[in-house]
Amino acid sequence: MLASLQDGFGASVKSLQASVKDLVDKLNKNGNNGIYMAVGGVAAVTAIAAMYSFATSLPRGKSFSEYKQISEEFYDVAIVGSGPSGSTLAFYLCRDNKKLKVLLLDKKAFPRDKYCGDAVASVAQKHLAEMGVLQEIVSEQKGHFAQNGGFVSPGGRMVIGNSAQELGLGTGAVVISVKRIVLDEKMAKAALKQGALLTENTTVENAVWLPDVGMWKVDCTRDDKPISYMARCLVCADGAPSSLATKLGYVKEPPQGTCSRAYVKGNTRFQYDGVVFYPKELLPGYCAIIREAGNELNFCTYIIPGGPTKNEDLPKMHADIMKDYPFVAKSLGANPDIERMKSASLRLGGIRKSYDDHLLIIGDAAGFIDPLTGEGIQYAIAGSALAAKVLLDGFKKGTLSARQLKRYQDVWYREWGRDFYWSMKMSLLLYRFPVMLDAAAKLIEKRGSKFLAQWAEVMTGTKSKTWFLRLDVWPFLVLEIIAQTYRNITGKK
Description:
By secondary structure, the protein is of the alpha+beta class.
């Protein structure tokens, strides 16, 4: 049809151009009437020429139907990766526009594991409730709300409080711990209930943009057989390494950090819901013990760039802290029933460009992990909710251009991108000046558990890092840093 339009416009322009000469010839014979006829003819030629120019600027490649020889599978959105970010996006797209065809591609089959700290902050809990997932987790007792906890500073000062009680959260909490083998499957099923299609055991090998039809051709392997899908929009949600975004040239460096995870069974020594530990040799990273459902613990270690400990040191650091760091060793006890350490990579701080024409990059693939805390699930989920709004608006307007999808990058950067920047600066400061955490612990002791609860909100991404700039916070923190430095130098308490 496009070709016939172009040819038709071309013939019309040539015919009218030939007629202009006749109109001009009549100009001298017909006086004013001739002038009117000439002007009208020129206007007609100009209008048709503009239409012709527009038509010929459009691609004249293969028709949409011809690509059915490549694949019968056509979708509005193809999402590579069905973790929290991919499933959240699919859920909101399908729920809010029933006409959209959304494909979720996952290289594994559910239930499948993911190695992380399992902590889901309140920002993400709101979306889990919207999806019906949080209600299922609570009713099935597969999650644990962390109501009492705190941290241990590099100097050994421990601060513990009940953040849920201080913030009036009732039986809820700032954080709920849910094993990823449970969470990811429930989120994917929530997306399926809204109409998304999930294809498991499918490895995405490559994706190619076909400009002549305005679609992505996504080449995959399933059960050792090649298969391809076509989609108007491609979404990379394939985790921190993001092999697809790397192949496409949007991710240009490997993940910067790494973390370990090991579940502990039958522990009765640890009395809290969650404690973060800051051993000096691990700064600006940290380790933590988090209580899971069923009276299990999750011991995890985070290596964040900027300090002496490198990613390749993770196995040794994980084992040494368990054995030699007194607070962790005491909490786990002798010969704990603990699984073999498992690890995952961390892409920190957000990538520079997470969009393009008919393309988005979300979740861990986009680097949505706080450089100070290593937390990422809440940003993955909240970021996908933002991405869904931008895509839905694009489909409504009939455009998925880079200009339209740039709104996604603008809004996530406004929401937490600046926080990521300051988190990176703060993490480096903590490595160089561990006294800051010792001073913070002292200030929390003075201010009480309500102040600790606010601290917890900041460290879990519920509140912005600009909280530290409040006049009732930073001057007093500076005074405590000075006092703690004096105590360290003089040895006086």
